Amino acid sequence: MGLRAMGLRIMELRGVGFRAMLGGGGTVPARLLYSLLLYLLLPAILLRLCWRALRAPAYARRWGERFGRVAPLLGPGSGPVIWIHAVSVGETLAALPLIRRLQAAQPQARLLVTTTTPTGSARVRAALGDGVAHCYAPYDFPHAVRRFLRRVQPALLIVMETELWPNLLHGCARRDIPVVLANARLSARSAAGYARVAALTRPMLAALTRVAAQTGADGERFLALGLEPERLHVTGNLKFDLELDAALRARAHQLRAAWRGGVRPIWLAASTHEGEDEIVLAAHRQLLATRPDALLVLVPRHPERFDRVHALCMGQGFRTLRHSAGRPPAIDTQVLLGDTMGELLAFCGAADLVFVGGSLVPVGGHNLIEPAAWGRPVLSGPELFNFAEAAALLETGGGLRICADGAALAAAVAELLDQPERRAAMGAAAHAVAAANRGALTRLAAIIDPLCPR
After folding, report:
1. pLDDT in tens, 339-392
2. How far is 369 from 390, CA to CA, in rounded Å?
3. What is the pTM of this model?
4. What are the chain's domains?
5. Would residue 220 show up in a list of annotated catalytic residues for this protein?
6. H/E element holding 335?
7. Which residues are CB-neighbours of 120 under 8 A, at least 6 positions away?
8. Given 91, 304, 370, 383, the catalytic residue
């Protein structure tokens, strides 16, 4: 469980429980109780950081940033700070078009991009280099938030998707810092959780200057939770504005040639989770019975799982190569483990078709738009509550097939690899949906531009 999940568990205490825990009839604000409980969880948070560091050493570094100990950004001759917060890799990729537009439109401003995970941090560095300042966002402890805001002094905060923290938003409101919730999504499940803690949710929504929702359904859920209607805008999904530049296309072409694409069938299982790898490998074993030359490119969602998934592949008898080995797979390689960071988008372009994980287990799915932008057929499991609108668009448009279970996945992969015309038609349909839904960046920029420091 990450810190945000811990915070939501705290906030999911029944509204009446806030006073009941203080002996009934108390008038202590909900945010204060939330903060006290968060401080009580501090040992568990530190233990979790240590545990994650054992599996992913990057978690052992830069702890000070997580408690607001960052270098001051304002100095002689420096411009105002625009802060963009993107939790991890997915939010960072979605934010890239917006960040690049801000760099061009606000040259006087200094951009700060924060994440909460090392993988997100690595993606910021790889994509933006020294063009932006970067650090981890502070945990939502009041003292950490105060320290961070004092040292950074942002003139505007843009939060990607739905990363709502009571103390952070309270601190911004006290300092009159405008806050835009960009590319905002709110599933019915998440909305129900926030509704259970209305005493915390309503002040958070009141601190938001603008909410740029992905869909009308997302917007309606924000309104039901108490967002003022004049603060809501429906802008579409920023992930549809993905740019596949020449360097990325060249990398995908290079990978496809190294993997013998066109000579052997290649399918990608992207962003898989624990319990899902076994399902994918079973589907691949079934495929190998009729297509022994098939290559599965298997990319676990979290880097700390790379070694375990490699051991799983080897233990099940698959001839497996780690991509980090730096050599192309042999013709008899059956599984290529994608154990590097920042290459998944290029992998989508190198494969014949893409299964998007987090969907055969109750995670809620991952980004379906990336393979669609490449014109690749998209396969998914049924657990898509985090990407319901994009899934509906792609399924209706003929670019997505939802597989109920592992057997359905195996059948769909085999069918599409055996029928190139159907595969091409499905890929073209996916690309058409992705192209037709572009434009969120322009609509979002129209909301953000008036709030930018001058």
Report:
1. 998 899 999 999 999 999 999 999 999 999 999 999 999 999 999 998 999 999
2. 7
3. 0.87
4. 65-236+440-451 (3.40.50.11720), 247-436 (3.40.50.2000)
5. no
6. strand 335-337
7. 86, 87, 88, 89, 91, 92
8. 91
